[in-house]
Design a protein that fits this description.
The complex is a heterotetramer. Chain A contains ten helices and no strands. Chain A is an all-alpha fold. In chain D, strands 3-2-1-4-5-6 form a six-stranded parallel sheet, with helices on both faces. In chain D, strand 2, helix 4 and strand 3 form a beta-alpha-beta unit. The chains are: A mainly alpha, B mainly alpha, C alpha/beta, D alpha/beta.
């Protein structure tokens, strides 16, 4: 695709105009009184919610679409962009915090400097790498990029990320040893179930059950009359006990929690949609 | 002897592995106690992670969903998305902080509107699954139904109802309801026990993955396993 | 403090000693040449049967949102699933909803594809990173080209040979969600009705998913590295699951031993101080 | 098995309308001053008992909202911390509120100052008692663990959203023998709190605790509406199970309750029944 300059210039003009409009609007918005601000925010929230609610509730034609299905398809790109900008907010907050620490020489500011340097270097190579991967603006994958990105990504970021997560194994081990003392009925039920599941779901559970001599296979005959000794012994195998705990005892507990969380989430969605939630805005 | 010079950081490949190992031991040093070595690598980690994300955010997303549609397909309507989306970054300013709430409000509103489809698709099939468990041999038994299925259906229903009773708050729990709620909390403990058993397995696996890396890639000891 | 009784010491082992014991136990278990056949649980068996029932040329979506933090659990699952799909000569596309997941899954898929003669663009493709999972799934349920626009190598979706005859998720047979975070809830909520789901969570999230297994919203589940080991045994391949299983089960034994030790010490301490 | 649109089974829309109505009507009633009843959570008795024991020892009390970012859970955690601060203000027991989020830190300072004013002891409020340790998970955890051990705290209250660092708080609190009460909606951390703490407030109980304390109309009304919805779910489950057992699992009413495409078969069955 040739570098079509006229289309590029027009595009840049449009974008500059959009930025100018957005910036010009700010002082205008600034004149809004607090009540007006709350009204504007609640209105925008309501309209955004109404669009998606209507797309779900409106009846659909034979092609399984209603009048809002196609507009939603077109809007997707902008929604992905806004989500990316909102995720970038976290990065912006982090860099801003540590930049202030470094500039104002707050305690431990040296570490903030380390963070900022790592951020800038990695951002540079990550952007370069993604551009080279897509061959944008004729950017190639040079040897420098390959070595630097492999070192920073594969042999530093990946290693630190994996190690940080593995720390928790040590904490779980010491916490389980120290905290799991039979203090109450509840803690005992929880602990006993946890141990049964831990030993039942690993192959060792099968090995122990076999070595005790519990029947390994459930024949059709055992299924039809469950009170046969064979069947009872079969169900005493550790893998069977752990499976039964997870599929018959644990599943209804999770479903009850799901119903509680689900109804709570729907109630909160309605409160947020109608801007009833006092603590937030 | 050849193991040694293959082990030492002579080639760039080996140097990289050694750097990865230094990072690993720096993080593990916190197990002994908090120290500057750990804190240096922790802050480097957070900086690297934040810096890395910019590639996918800026290039992969903004290019694909914003710049290219405008530049090539001339979708002029899209130009306003980034400028007005940038209002989000006023969140820290004193005077215009509230402007960021307009965009945050739009996001909150969008997710509230999407909650209705989620509620229908995630929770109603679970409701249906809970009420199609026959408590005795149904008249037109389609598939093979065994006594063990009926027994398990009873347990499923009793646990489900008692845990739901536990999570009710708008009436006093007295008598039978109180006993059901207590029973519900004990069944809750069984569910939590199952969660804890699996959580232990998850965390152990992550540590095992690191030890495996150290043995296999660093010390070049071929590890067996099952 | 009078000399700490044996029970007191049994209850208060210093945590740094515990850490050393745990590390030594894992190293020993990793080196062990012990092979114990697993009892493959029903969720893993159903997972295997669902993939086994696919026909060559069927289309599968692999949602890969894991990165280095949970590599030890998700990578064995991801590798085993890809090998099984390639063995069935099935077409597949990968999508990631977390930035680092994109590069990790793309590199791993390329390596496995070369080993099995799969050509990127013709037999499989990677859709890159998309930040908003809900909007992406809803959009792909209608029109993938409009939602994803181009694959990770900047080829427009319509020009990918792997996408021949595929317009939306409705034309997919199956989605396999390999994830450390709650992406399953979104797949269950927003996908087209008859798109089957298979789940590869880190073990932390396995217990919560049994309600979806019971209601049939997901057809099968592999629980962490242990599940990968069971799946590898069904596939007859050796992967990281096989390498880790001994260390996993012996660390469970270690934890159970120390919990019992701590409680035994406490009970005896209580009896000693009571008498 | 899933819904692309409400038309797949209009029952979904009816159920959502019922829940929305139950929640909004009760919020409206609460706002008009109607006293909605929320039962007292056993966890609150445990909090009062812990406060009592901490005042005897005279050592400080810690309150930890964890890594909770500013949002619904943070606001409610601070409501509970305000309640605790008002109780301990009567005995001049020192307190420490430790946060990992800058916004929560700012709001917490206001909340604790209000608590001391409401307890008529503004003199006891010490600005240093509310601290922002670090926004990084494990740096925050080690900071909290250090303080707990240095000041040998008497009681530890943990409310909000928690991740793997909850183990460090619970374990350190155990080492110094502190009374510990926790409340969280993060189910993966509840097992550790149950094992290590004296009492744990689980899942929805967390919202009920702050509603009981704050009597805030929107929260009260919403909880009552959610209760009605839970009761309706439970009755549908019991009713549906009865039909499945005695008539069969493919009965139109059973199909209606949650199965996509269940609407048509129900409407046909209903018209047959009404037609007869």
């Amino acid at each position: 695709m040739l570098f079509d300059t006229t289309q590029l210039v027009v595009a840049l003009l449009w974008i500059a105009g959009a930025f100018a409009l957005a910036i010009a609007l700010i002082p205008l918005l600034g004149t809004l009184p607090p009540r007006g601000r709350f009204a504007l925010i609640s209105f925008v929230t309501f309209i955004a919610g109404l669009f998606f609610a209507a797309e779900f509730f409106l009846p659909v034609g034979e092609d399984n679409k209603n009048i809002l299905t196609d507009p939603f398809q077109k809007m997707q790109g902008s929604l992905q962009v806004i989500t990316a900008l909102s995720l970038g907010l976290g990065t912006y907050g982090l860099v801003r915090l540590h930049l202030r620490n470094a500039v104002q020489r707050r305690p431990q500011w040296g570490y903030s400097l380390v963070l900022l340097i790592a951020f800038v270097v990695m951002a540079f190579f990550s952007i370069w790498n993604t551009m080279a991967e897509k061959g944008l603006f004729g950017i190639e994958r040079t040897q420098l990029l390959e070595n630097a990105f492999t070192l920073l990504f594969d042999y530093t970021l990946i290693q630190l990320d994996a190690t940080m997560f593995s720390l928790i194994a040590f904490y779980i081990f010491s916490a389980a040893y120290r905290a799991f003392r039979i203090r109450s009925i509840e803690a005992s039920i929880l602990m006993f179930t946890a141990m049964l599941v831990m030993i039942g779901i690993v192959p060792l559970g099968k090995l122990i059950s076999d070595s005790i001599g519990l029947p390994a296979v459930q024949t059709a005959e055992m299924r039809t009359n469950p009170f046969m000794l064979e069947n009872i012994l079969y169900n005493l195998r550790l893998p069977q006990i752990a499976g039964w705990i997870q599929e018959t005892l644990n599943a209804p507990v999770q479903r009850a929690i799901e119903f509680g969380v689900g109804i709570g989430a729907l109630a909160m969605a309605i409160r947020l949609w109608l801007s009833l939630e006092r603590g937030i805005n | 002897m050849d193991w040694l010079n293959e082990f030492l950081p002579t080639s760039t490949e080996r140097l990289n592995v050694w750097i990865g190992v230094i990072c690993t031991f720096a993080i593990y040093s916190i197990l002994y106690r908090e120290n500057p070595f750990y804190r240096f690598f922790e802050h480097m980690y957070i900086g690297l992670a934040a810096g890395y994300a910019l590639g996918p955010y800026l290039v992969d997303v903004l290019y694909r969903y914003w710049w290219e549609p405008i530049r090539i397909e001339g979708a002029w309507g899209l130009v306003f998305v980034v400028p007005f989306g940038m209002y989000l970054y006023f969140i820290y300013s004193e005077r215009y902080g509230w402007i960021s709430r307009i965009v945050i409000g739009a996001l909150i509103g969008a997710y509230s509107g999407l909650a209705f489809q989620m509620f229908s698709s995630r929770y109603l099939p679970q409701l249906h699954g809970a009420l199609t468990k026959p408590l005795w041999f149904p008249p037109n038994a389609t598939g093979e139904i065994f006594l063990s299925n009926i027994f398990n259906n009873w347990i499923f229903l009793i646990i489900l109802i008692s845990v739901m009773v536990y999570f009710t708050f708008s009436f006093e729990h007295r008598g039978a309801v109180k006993r059901t709620a207590i029973l519900g909390r004990w069944f809750l403990m069984i569910g939590l026990g199952a969660m804890f058993g699996n959580t232990v397995m998850a965390r152990m696996a992550l540590l095992i993955g690191r030890v495996y890396y150290l043995l296999d890639s660093w010390l070049m000891i071929r590890v067996g396993g099952g | 403090m009078e000399a700490r009784s044996i029970w007191e010491r049994m209850m208060r082992i210093d945590r740094r000693i515990l850490y050393v014991i745990l590390a030594v136990n894992i190293i020993a278990a990793l080196m062990a040449r012990v092979a114990i056949e697993p009892d493959v649980p029903p969720p893993v068996k159903r997972f295997y049967d669902t993939v086994e029932a696919l026909q060559p040329g069927d289309m599968v979506m692999v949602s890969s949102t894991w990165s280095a933090g949970t590599l030890a659990e998700n990578q064995p699952q991801f590798e085993a699933v890809l090998k099984h799909l390639m063995r069935k000569r099935v077409r597949f596309t990968i999508i990631s909803f977390a930035p680092p997941a994109r590069d990790i899954s793309h590199r791993l898929a390329r390596r496995i594809a070369e080993e099995n003669g799969y050509v990127e663009g013709k037999d499989w493709a990677h859709f890159g990173y998309t930040p908003d999972i809900i909007i992406a799934i809803k959009g792909m349920s209608e029109d993938i080209a409009q939602t994803i626009r181009q694959d990770v190598r900047r080829t427009p979706i319509a020009e990918l040979e792997v996408m021949r005859g595929i317009k939306s998720l409705k034309d997919y047979k199956l989605v396999v969600d390999v994830t450390p975070s709650d992406t399953l809830g979104n797949w269950i909520s927003y996908r087209p009705p008859d798109l089957k789901i298979l789940y590869c969570p880190t073990s932390v999230m396995a217990a919560e998913a049994y309600t979806f297994l019971d209601s049939g919203q997901i057809l099968g589940m592999i629980t962490g590295a242990k599940g990968a080991y069971e799946y590898e045994r069904l596939l007859g391949i050796v992967g990281l699951g096989t390498r880790f299983i001994n260390a996993i089960q012996f660390s469970h034994v270690l934890i159970i031993f120390f919990i019992l030790l701590g409680n035994f010490g406490m009970l005896m301490q209580r009896r000693a101080s009571a008498s | 098995m899933s819904y692309q649109h409400a038309e797949d089974n209009w029952f979904a829309a009816i159920l959502i309308a019922f829940i929305a109505l139950a929640v909004l009507v009760n919020i409206w009633r609460a706002r008009r001053g109607k006293a909605l009843y929320i039962r007292r959570i056993p966890g609150l008795d445990a909090i009062d008992e812990a406060i009592g024991r901490s005042t005897e020892l005279g050592r400080p009390v810690t309150m930890i909202p964890g890594l909770t970012g500013f949002g619904v859970e943070a606001v409610q955690a601070l409501t509970i911390f305000k309640y605790i601060t008002k109780q301990i203000a009567r005995f001049a027991t020192p307190m420490r509120l430790l946060t990992a989020n800058a916004t929560v830190y700012a709001v917490a300072q206001e909340a604790i100052a209000d608590a001391y004013n409401e307890a008529e002891r503004p003199d006891l409020y010490d600005a240093d008692s509310v601290r922002f340790l670090s926004s990084e998970q494990f740096a925050f955890a080690s900071g909290v663990a250090g303080l707990i051990q240095r000041e040998r705290i008497a009681a530890n209250f943990m409310f909000g959203i928690f991740y793997a660092e909850s183990l460090i708080f619970a374990e350190t609190g155990n080492i110094v023998g502190a009374v510990q009460i926790a409340g969280t909606v993060s189910f993966t951390q509840v097992p550790f709190f149950v094992a290590a703490c004296d009492y744990t407030i689980i899942g929805d109980e967390f919202y009920a605790t702050s509603a009981y304390i704050s009597r805030e109309p929107v929260l009260l009304g919403s909880l009552v509406g959610q209760d009605l919805s839970k009761i309706s779910f439970a009755s549908m489950i019991v009713g549906g199970s009865m039909i499945s057992t005695f008539i069969g699992t493919d009965h139109p009413i059973v199909q209606l309750l949650g199965k996509p495409q269940g609407w048509q078969s129900f409407v046909e069955w209903l018209s047959q029944v009404l037609g007869r």
